[in-house]
Amino acid sequence: MAQEHWRVAIIDTSLARKSTNLLKAYYNSQGYFNSKSKYTIDSTNRKQRAHIAYNIELGQPYLIDSLSTNIRSKTLDSIYQLNKHESLLKTKDQYNWSNFSNERQRLIALFRNTGVYNFQESSINFDIDSISNTSSKNMRIKLQIKNLKKRGENVITEYKVYKFDTISIYTDYFFGDDLSKMNRMEYENYIIYYKDKLKYKPRALTNAIFLKKDSVYREINKSRTYRQISNLNTFKYPNITFDSVGNTLNTKIYLSPLKKYQLRIDPELTHSNIQRIGTAFSTSLTTKNVFGGAETLSLSARGSLGLLSDASISNENFVSEVGADINLTVPRIWMPFNTKKIIPPYMLPQTRMIIGTNFQKNIGLDKQNFNTILGYNWSATQSKKNALELINIQFIRNINPGRFFNVYQSTYKRLDDIADNYQDDPILSEYFNAPDDTTDPKLIIPTGTSGFIEQILNQGLAPSTSDDYIEVRSIDERQKRLTENNLIFATNFSYTKDSRTGLNDNNFHQFKIKLESAGNLLSAFSNVITFNENEDGNLLVFGVPFSQYVKTDFDYIKHWGFQSQNVVAFRGFFGIAIPYGNSNSIPFTKSYFAGGSNDNRAWNAYDLGPGSTKSLNDFNEANLKIAVNLEFRFPIAGSIKGAFFADAGNIWNVFDNEENEDAIFTGLSSLKDIALGTGFGIRYDFDYFVLRLDTGFKTYNPELEVSKRWFRDYNFNNATINIGVNYPF
User: Fold this and answer.
1) Beta-carbon neighbour count of residue 262 at 10 Å?
2) For residues 289, 294, 299 and 302, what is the CA-based torsion angle, rounded to 10 degrees?
3) What is the distance between the alpha carbons of residues 540 and 531, in angstroms, rounded to a whole number?
4) 242 Cβ contact partners less than 8 Å away, ≥ 6 residues apart
5) In whole angstroms, how far apart are CA 267 and each of 278, 279, 285?
6) How does pLDDT run across 435-477, given as a tens digit for each residue?
7) Residue 305 CB contacts under 8 Å (≥ 6 apart), including other chains
8) How far apart are CA 586 and CA 583, in angstroms?
9) Which of 7, 322, 487, 549 is most buried, judged by most C-beta within 10 A?
C-alpha cells in the first residue's frame, strides 16, 4: 500500500528528510514496522517551481499474537488477574502504541486505587517479541512489573497494599509551627490538633476528608479530599503527607486558614441603549467560617448612576440604582434529611441562601425588586455541574406605573396616531393638550392616554375600524403587563457539561440546559386556600397576581482552536417560555429579547423583533427565541485581537395573548424572519478581562419588505456599535 501526501511550500531537502522520518515513525506507531518511505522532487514547466511527493510503502501490519505477564509482586499479580478483563491490549488486535500507553496509565490508576500508594510508573515495561512469516506478522507481548526500588537506595521491596492507621488534622497551621504545643482532641477516628480554641466544628472538617481509618488507600480519595477542602473556601490548598509503618499509613493533613474577612470594591463604567454613560460601584464584605462549619457569609451593596441617552423619556436627566444582598454559602446540602446517598460529598455540594433587594430610579416607571433564593450546587465530575434553585421568589413592584407612556415612546406614538382620527370628537377634548399654530394636539399622559383607551375599549366611543380596536386593546394589554406588579414563585434546575480544561483551552464544547417552572405550588394551595381574584379572574397573593409558566433554555457552545491562536467559535441557543393557568403572558423579567453586545450585534438590545414587526416597541420582547452565532477570532498585535462574526436569530410570541400575526411563530415558515447581522470587532486583552468593540451591519432585516431585506442598510451610516466586556460566547 502506498500513500502520497501533497503540500505547497518552499522546498528544503533537510526538512523533506525530516518529514519522511516523521511519517515513518508515525506508521511504526500503528504497527507498520517494515514500512518504507522516501520523497522525490519533480520540476515543472514553470520557472522556479517544483513539487515534492512523499511515498510510503506500508506493508503488512503487526498483530498481537499472545499476551503474558511477569509480575514480581504477588499482591499486584492478584489485583491484575482480578481486573485483566479491562485490559486495553487484546489478541488479534493490530499494534497501536497509544493502546500500550493507555494500558500503562490504566494499571497505574488501578494499583494506586487498590491500596498501593507508592506504585511507580517506571516499574511497568512491555517486552515485545516479533514473529514474522510469509502469511502474517505477529507479536508476543509480555507485561513486566518489577518490585519497588526506592529512590537513592539499592533496596528492592515487594509492593503491598496499605491501610490507614492514624489520620491527624492540623488546623490553623502555619509553616514552622511547633506541633507539640497544639491542643488535641479525637473525633470519629480522627485526631484534630488546634491552637487555643478549636474554631471549626469537627464534623465540618471530617466530612471534607475521604481518607478513613482502616480503609485501603485509594488515590481518588486523596484527590477528592484536596478538592473538598478547597471547596470549603476556608483554607488554603492543603498539604497531605503519608508515613508508612509496616502495611499501614499514618496520615497528616495540614490546613492553613485563609483570611477571615475580605473586602472587595469594584468600580466600573457602563453604557447601554438607555444610558449615554454611567458609573457603577459595588462592594462586598465576606466572612469565612461564620458559624464554625466553614460557612461563608457575604454582605454586598451596589449602586449606579447614569446619564439618560434621551431625556425626553423621563422627567429626570439621570437614572440610578441601589441594591443590597445577603448571601450565605454552606459547603453541604442543607435539607431536613440525609442526601449523601443521592449527592455524595465528593460532588462538592453547596447550599446557597440569598436575600436581596434592589431599587431602580430608572426611566420613568421605577422599580423595587425583592428576591429570595434557596439553591443547591454540586458537580458530578469536573466537567458536569448541576444547580437546583428549590425556591426562587421574586417580587417586582412598579412605583410609577402612570409614567408608562413617557417611557415607552413608540407605544405612545402608536396610540396618539390612532387618537388623531378622533381628536375632533368633543367627548375626547379633555384628553388632548391645547395645540398651538404649529403642533397637533397630543394625548395627555397619563389622563388622556388612559381616558382614550377606556373610551375605545368600553364602547364609550365607537372605533372607526376594527383594526383601531385591536391595536388599542393590544396597547392596553401591553401597558397592563409591563406596569403590573409581579410575584414569581419559581423552581429551576440547570445542567452544564463543559469539556474545557483551562482558560487557554481553545478546543472545547459546552452544553447547558435549564428548566424552570413557576406558580405550580401556589396554584396547588388554591385548592385548599381561597385566594382573592382580580377583574380578569387571576388569583391574587398579597394583592398581586402570581405568575404561572414553564420555561426551558438550551445553549450549546463549541470552539475550534487552530495555529497562531486563531479560533472559530460557535453558539446555538433555543428558549421558550409558555404561560398557563394564572397567566396569559410571561413576566417582562423572564421574557427573551434580541440584539445587543452578546446576541445579534447588528441591532441594539431590545431593538430586534418580534418576528417581522418593525420594532413597534421601545423594548421588544417575546417568549420564544432562536439564536445562532459564528465568530472567527485572530491575533493582530500583542494584546490586540480581531474578529469577524455572523449573528442570526430572532424572537417570537407563541402560546400567549399576542394577536399581531407578524410577531407570532406559526411554524417553519416563520424561520424566514430570522435576522442576520455580520460585522467585525476589535478586542484588547487585559489578561483578567477582555474589552471589545463590535461593529455590526444589518445583512438580512426581516422588518423590511421581502424584496428589500438583503443588504438594504449595509453601510456604516446604519451600522450598530456594541461595547462589551469579555467574549460573548
Assistant:
1) 13
2) 130
3) 6
4) 117, 217, 249, 250, 251
5) 11, 7, 15
6) 665 568 889 988 999 999 988 888 667 777 778 888 888 888 8
7) 278, 279, 318, 319, 320
8) 7
9) 549
